[in-house]
User: What shape does this take?
Amino acid sequence: MLHSFGYLAVMKHIQRLRKMVTLSYKMEWIDKDPFIRFKPNYIRNDREFLREDELQAIEEKQFTIERLQIVKDLFVFSCYTGSSYIDVMQLSEENIQLGIDGNRWVITNRKKTDKKVRIPLLEKAEEIINKYDGHIKAKSSGTLFPVISNQKLNSYLKKLADVSGVKKSLTFYMARHTFATTITLSNGVSIETVSKLLGHTKISTTQIYARVIEQKVSDDMASLKNKLQSINTNKPNTFLSSNSKG
Assistant: This one.
């Protein structure tokens, strides 16, 4: 079976090809549209994210090896801003501006969609920005943080997961999912706000995360139901006990 990421990549290529074929048909360059009866079947997968305890375990881990510490800080920064790898790497001091509330915000254009995003900085994200203020590697690249390749970063994230006791396959994109679920939606931030913070062009994209939250609610309630059933099963029947005494 085709891996889910590979499947989505193939479907995106088919989408692009279909647009070209449709244009060719409309321009009468071809006689028939071969996609006329084709209906794409997208597989929607739940976005894996870190629970609060898993994120805390990573946050508390400190490294003496600088590159591992940088990777950890970049990952945590993304967990509290929802920024993708490329967007984090391209941030500069110019992107840190005062927002409508007088506090510091990240204001930038998403590389993927070129859509402007405005993200109020949470305390943890601000601490990381302050930590790398004046860092020699960041200054040499003119960026907010030291630049590290995506390949190396994801390689180091596997090490980070191991030493932090996190059993999930850690990738940088998981930080973005964590921001959407554990940091924002789980804490009552509206889906409309989360959609703007993530720079989504369609709210339906953000609703994928909402379904993840609903699944968590379902799992928690199922666990509670089992717990209550267990308590009721083990509870003595007081009515029968009182009658037996009479």
Notes: Residues 101 and 120 are 9 Å apart (CA to CA). Confidence is low (pLDDT under 50) at residues 1-5.
